[in-house]
Structure prediction request, 142 residues.
Amino acid sequence: MIIEAGCDLHELLNPRLIRDHEANGAVGAPLSVVSIDDELRYLYPRPAATPVRLPLSGHAADIAACLDGGFWNVRNDVLAQHLKTRSDDKSFWLDDADRSVEARPELAAFDLLGQIAFDEDGYYSTLPRHSFRDLASRQDLP
Prediction:
């Protein structure tokens, strides 16, 4: 499947993360890493860490291990999780978390497209809801 916009990932991941959240009970859903190739093809999601610890940059080695695609040409990734409640912890603010994860040397070969955090009321995300090709800042994407 070709990912054309952030809303494609919202639709694909929400049911999976709700299932993982319910299956893990008190521990909660894992931090999931979605691997996407250089043509924006959805390759696979993998759980990186359970439970999720803040800051997310502390999971850089786990994220990098998930992105080792073997014969797949992984270029892009998305982080996703389902929270029990909305977090007021400032270390969880998605824009700051994106920057802290992107700065890790073990993830330098990959392009973080953004994050999605679902909770019981909805979601918040650093992924655009519209087409990636319409973003002036992302002209490198197909």
In short: The two ends are 14 Å apart (CA to CA).
